[in-house]
Specification:
The structure is a single chain. With about 300 residues, this protein is α+β, with helices and mostly antiparallel strands. Helices cover about 30% and strands about 30% of the residues. The strands form three sheets. Strands 7-6-3-4-5-11 form a six-stranded mixed β-sheet. The chain has a five-stranded antiparallel β-sheet with strand order 8-9-2-1-10, sandwiched between helices. A two-stranded antiparallel sheet has the order 12-13. Strand 1 and strand 2 form a beta hairpin. The longest helix is centred in the N-terminal third of the chain and has 18 residues. The chain is globular. It starts with 17 loop residues before the first strand and ends with a strand.
């Protein structure tokens, strides 16, 4: 898709539960757009989450898809974990692997009850930290830990990229709950030195003219546009950047909820423990029972 082209019927457009990638070669920038419908509702249906946690998990899953979509290959995994000792939300974790997503939040229901539907990050976590881990298919693992600072989780993720990877990053996320379910969407864009992926990364400044131009454009996107079910993700990219010399769009992964837990997996983990530690795990009936919070399933292990 170039300056002279808008979305057409030649290629199917992307509306929900799929990633869309794009690059702006003349601005040395790359981005991702995502809208979650069925995936988000499938994750939230596992637990009876109150409104503030539904909103938080919606934002977290969008961020997980946007950041996970930066990985190459099928085996790469992105894990995001936010944690605090004093806030109403003790733990938030979500991950992305090859288009499969899952998420879970642990919280104090009494503290969360009076926060409203969309509380600020500090109200949810107090003082906490955000850990983001990228694992590549080649076995390499990169992790950055930053304070949970900013008005929302998106700002904390922007801080991660600036502080841990020195990559100027802008993220916009919107979420909504209505009679037809839960919906969340977002856009991520980064300024990369020399533009093309795979080349040596050079220093990129937050005050670079190209980056300032991109920030000005992306800041115009509204929550209504991001969540509009009739507006394709290709159209969102076109609305934002139609005056650029060239827009390269790359259809991305289809997204689905999925948990990688299984009785065999937990059996292999527990089997590594010494016999006395395994005995300490047994209940009154002599069973070792494992609860998976991601999918709310219980596994009784024959060990």
């Amino acid at each position: 898709m170039t300056q002279a082209q808008s979305p057409t019927a030649q290629e199917p457009e992307t509306f929900a539960d799929k990633l869309l990638g794009f690059t702006l070669p003349s601005r040395s920038a790359r981005g991702r757009v995502v809208r979650l419908d069925a995936v988000l509702n499938d994750v939230l249906a596992v637990h009876d989450y109150p409104a503030p946690i539904q909103h938080l998990l919606g934002e977290a899953l969008v961020l997980g898809a946007l950041m996970g979509g930066l990985l190459k290959g099928e085996d790469g995994q992105l894990t995001m974990q936010a944690q605090t000792k004093a806030g109403p939300v003790q733990l938030l974790v979500c991950d992305y692997r090859g288009g499969t997503m899952r998420g879970y939040a642990e919280f104090d229901g009494a503290q969360v009850e009076g926060l409203g539907a969309n509380p600020a990050l500090a109200a949810l976590f107090g003082e906490g930290y955000l850990a983001i881990t990228f694992e590549t298919g080649a076995g390499k693992r990169y992790q950055g830990i930053v304070p949970l600072e900013g008005d929302n989780l998106s700002e904390a993720c922007e801080n991660y990229f600036v502080q841990s990877e020195q990559v100027p990053t802008l993220i916009r996320v919107a979420s909504r709950s209505s009679a037809d379910g839960h919906h969340a969407a977002g856009v991520l864009i980064q300024h990369l030195a020399d533009g093309e992926e795979g080349r040596e990364r050079l220093h990129v400044r937050l005050d670079h003219p190209d980056w300032e131009h991109i920030v000005a454009l992306v800041s115009t996107i509204s929550h209504e546009e991001l969540l509009d079910p009739k507006l394709s993700m290709e159209s969102i990219v076109w609305r934002l950047f139609h005056e650029e010399d060239q827009i390269r769009v790359q259809p991305g992964k289809g997204l689905k909820r999925g948990c990688r837990c299984s009785a065999d997996y937990y059996h292999s983990v527990i089997a590594r423990f010494p016999a006395d530690e395994q005995d300490a795990m047994r209940d009154d009936e002599g069973r070792i029972v494992v609860d998976c919070q991601f999918c709310a399933q219980q596994y009784v292990l024959a060990i």
